[in-house]
Amino acid sequence: MKNPLKKNVLFFRSNQNILWDIVVCGALLLVVSGIGSLFYRLHLDGATIILLYLLGVMVVSILSTARLTGVLFSIASVLIYNYLFTIPRFTFHAYGRDHFATLLIMLAASVLAGSLAVRLKNNAKVFRQDAYSAKVLFNTSQQLSKAKGPDQAYSCMARQLQDLFGCGVIVYPIQDDQIQETITAGTISQKMLEKEQMHEVQKVLKKGGYAGIVAGRQASYAPVHLEKEVLAVVGLEKVLENIDEFEENIFLSILGECAMTLENQRVIKERQEARIEAENERLRADLLRMISHDLRTPLTSIYGHATNLLQQEEQMDSSVKRQIYQDIYADSRWLIELVENLLAITRLDQKQVDLHRNQDVVEDVIEEALKHVEGHTQGHKIVFERKDDFSLAYMDARLIMQVVVNLINNAIKYTPSGSTITIQTESKDSVAYVTIMDDGPGIPDEQKERVFEMFYTGTGKLTDTKRSLGLGLALCKSVIEAHHGDLILEDNQPHGAKFTFSLPQSKEEAENENLGHRR
After folding, report:
1. If you count Cβ atoms within 10 Å of the first and of the last residue's Cβ in the chain, which end, N or C, has fewer?
2. 178 bridge partner residues
3. Would you say 218 and 188 are in contact if contact means Cβ atoms under 8 Å apart?
4. CB atoms within 10 A of CB 151
């Protein structure tokens, strides 16, 4: 059954076009005939007047909306030329034998010229539409390329459609065959938001990706799809009868651009997930390989010393026994430190650690950390300088103590015996700062960007015989960032390395999550 609204609209448009063509045709006939009469009085050749009518045919073919108008103008031109400019004048008779042939050739030339003019007009229209389509799609593609995630892509597409068609746009995202929260652009009438409109959406979903544009009572609906998978349904608050073929192509092309963008986002996400998974697998493999290699030395040492004590304890003097005990203690302590770092950084990386933060005194935490390294400084001098009487920080004291221990141990490992390790505390702008610096050889510039990576040990020479797994600084970085602070590495003057980390002094400051290095 035909839509009577569409029939009325088409009838009104056709009447407008016919009226316009009649006005253009009549006006040009009067103008051309008037100019032709002037040429006739000036005794110009009849061929000139014929060319004038041919020019009129081309002009009316370009200005009119129907091809038939040019043909009718051609017939009228021949009749008027015969009536006004052939002998006998002001009659439709002609005495000369060549006049009839001239009139036929004039008619044929007029029709041909009119057809060529119409074809040129149509080609120009197509070229303009193609250029406009390319511009719109390029602009849409540029805007969609900046979208981060499906929601932004849908919003960008809706705004573009709203700008082009000047009407409200509503998007129904589809996920797991369920309609999600709608996204709108422009002014949406209340009728567009009623539940009855879901019937039109379901109709599009039922037809699938090849539904095309489905006419609704208040809007026109079309799917954003990849092959048969429907990603979203878009409602354009414009009835289908008011959308011409060119607008329909633009509409569907923009939906296609959005679908391509969503597919690209999906591919990028899958690649990122695959890369992360591959990186995790590589890290796990590296961890197992390095642990199996690096734990062998202390375990072999402990096993050898325990065997000697079991078999030859009675033959050993007290000094030899004491040295063996110290070696076993040192190896065991290194193993415990390694395992603690492994557990802590794994939990932090997997977001499994609950920070038990309270407002504590930073200096007390550092004092407690110094007790853990006391007796294992390997001849290093540790100096604790307080710029303030005390500094408060909103922190998990246990984890921050582990950070301080790791930074001190790192300085001990990579500086020669007799070096000085200085610890400083300071409060400024609601932020507590802790600096741990040494006067050793320092860290080369090319290694500074990687010292906080897991398993990166650099090329620095350790002062003991054990290798480092490169977990201490990575753990420190993770702990400080979990506190919304920052850990940076700088050169100590005149030589050495300086690590400074910041902590919020209050819960409110921590919630800002943007401390940075303010000093």
Report:
1. N
2. 175
3. no
4. 14
pTM of the full structure: 0.47
pLDDT at residue 437, rounded to an integer: 94
> pLDDT below 70 — which residues of the chain?
1-17, 65-67, 94-103, 105-107, 109-110, 113-114, 117, 129, 190-197, 283, 286-294, 341-342, 344-354, 375-376, 454-471, 512-519
**Triad 454, 383, 492: Cα angle to 5°:** 55
- Supply the pLDDT for residue 11: 36
Could you give phi then psi for residue 388, rounded to 5 degrees? -125, 160
What SS3 class is residue 515? Answer: coil
Query: 69-98: b or e for each residue (b if 16 or more CB lie within 10 Å)?
Result: bbbbbbebbbebbbeebbeeeeeeeeeeee
Report the pLDDT value the prediction gives residue 503, as an integer from 0 to 100: 93
CA distance 13 to 396: 76
What does the pLDDT read at residue 7?
39
Q: In whole angstroms, give the CA distance from residue 48 to residue 483.
A: 92
Domains belonging to the chain, first-starting first, are 4-138 (no CATH), 147-268 (3.30.450.40), 296-348 (no CATH), 354-512 (3.30.565.10)
Evaluate whether 181 touches 173 at the Cβ level (below 8 Å).
Answer: yes
